[in-house]
Amino acid sequence: MIKMHPYLNFNGQAEEAFNFYKSVFGGEFITLMKMSDAPGAEQLPEAEKNLVMHVALPINENLILMASDCVPSAGHVLNKGNNMYVSISPESREEAERLFNGLSAGGEIEMPLEDQFWGDYFGSFKDKYGICWMVNFGTYK
After folding, report:
1. pLDDT of the residue at 93
2. What contacts 29, CB < 8 A, 6 or more positions away?
3. Could you read off the pLDDT of 84-140 as tens digits, one per residue?
4. Bridge pairing between strands 132-137 and 63-69
């Protein structure tokens, strides 16, 4: 079964917001990665190294709230409309490709679907209706 999770973008407040959400929902982060954990992080301005690359807080067995901070030096700009994504967690690479290719048709691909340094098969895009999507096979299947 495909799982879908809300994915939020922040302008430097992801960790603060998720500590707040954790205080309300309870539980523990299953992931909290900083930009300094990414390959090439030495190229980032010092002020961006502590930004959140990815955080995940399970809300229940079927829902994980996830987020990251925008990175200005990488050209990321938080605009109305890109502060939330629908993250799809398919059960196979083949299903990931089918969903990515189908939903992104006529849209704008942000990150091609490919193997990532954190071990997942991941890609993101904005569909032809302006909805932002992530397809992530691996961690959250």
Report:
1. 95
2. 18, 22, 55, 56, 57
3. 888 888 889 999 999 999 999 999 999 999 999 989 999 999 988 777 889 999 876
4. unpaired
Residue 72: left if φ>0, alpha if ψ -120 to 50, beta else—which one? alpha
Place of tokens 């925008």: 70
Whole-structure pTM value? 0.72
Strands (E), 61-107: 63-69, 84-89
Strands (E), the chain: 3-10, 31-34, 52-60, 63-69, 84-89, 108-115, 121-126, 132-137
Residue whose C-alpha is closest to residue 31's, from 3, 62, 65: 65
